[in-house]
Amino acid sequence: MPELPELEILKDELNAHVLGRQVKEVIVPEGRGGDCPVPEWKSAIEGATIVRVERRGKMLVLQFDSGFSLLIHLMMVGQLLLSSLHDGDPNDVRLILAFASEQLSLGQVALRFLQLVPTSELDELPQLKKLGHDPTSEGFTVGVLKSTLAGRRGKVKPLLLNQSLIAGIGNTYADEILFDGHIAPTRQASSLSDKELQRLHSSIVDILRRGLEMGGSSEMAFVHLDGRKGAFQEHFQVKQREGKPCKVCGSPIEKATVGGRGTYFCARCQE
């Protein structure tokens, strides 16, 4: 599933390439609409100009000057691609926003994971209202992390994945963050010392930054708007490396289920 770095990359690329452009036509290929109210979407978006693109946690928001916003969740394998008009495989496309000479296509994700709402009601949507701290913001300090985890019962990894606490971290980056911070995913959050919290905060910031700098992770289906893959998966320290030697100590990387999620870690490096 695309996580914070991948969605941040798409947000920046959308701002660079579609911000200020008018949607000439909204196209939903036959049989792909499901329960989507296509006529309502056409009425709200066709002829409208994209005036803002933002990321909220692991979701993207396109705002239009018609007073509506489109909330996009790419789920596990969804993709956004910008291409020439009528380009691409229609079998993979669920929604097309056609501009004058290009089109923005959404593929590999059902339209039920998109939501069109009046922009004035955006901040009241439950899935946005409950989002926790953005770990890329200047306000995400060690003190904020400490207060966020204070009094929380449970293992540290599931808490990192809790979007109502910290928004944007998913399974892939959580494993890499905890390895970088030398913290076992099964540690009780309440047992972390101030020094370990400082280390965890630094690892959250650093690993997300590395993911951005490397163009995101294409471990699954993520691609840039032009179809390019990211490279972060080529530098994984623990993710998808079960049985392989740890790059730090040489011990075999292990895999276990923590909080219902497959989790990779080094038992020697992470305490």
Q: Please identify the oligomeric state.
A: single chain
CATH architecture of the largest domain: Alpha-Beta Barrel
In CATH, the topology of the largest domain is named N-terminal domain of MutM-like DNA repair proteins
Task: Kindly name the structural category.
Answer: alpha+beta
Number of strands: 10
Instruction: Please outline the major beta sheet.
Output: 4 strands, antiparallel
Main CATH class of the largest domain: Alpha Beta
Rg measurement, Å:
20 Å
Give the SSE string.
HEHEEEEEEEHHHHHEE
**What is the share of helical residues?**
25-40%
Distance between the termini: 27 Å
Integer average pLDDT: 94
Structure commentary:
It is a single chain. The chain is an alpha+beta fold. The chain folds into 2 domains: 126 residues, MutM-like, N-terminal (N-terminal domain of MutM-like DNA repair proteins, Alpha-Beta Barrel), CATH 3.20.190; 124 residues, Helicase, Ruva Protein, domain 3 (Orthogonal Bundle), CATH 1.10.8. Helix content is 26%, strand content 20%. The protein has 7 helices and 10 strands. A 4-stranded antiparallel β-sheet has the order 1-6-7-5, covered by helices on one side. Strands 2-3-4-8 form a 4-stranded antiparallel β-sheet, covered by helices on one side. Strands 9-10 form a two-stranded antiparallel ribbon. Strand 2 and strand 3 form a beta hairpin. Helix 1 packs across helix 7. The model has no long low-confidence stretch (mean pLDDT 94).
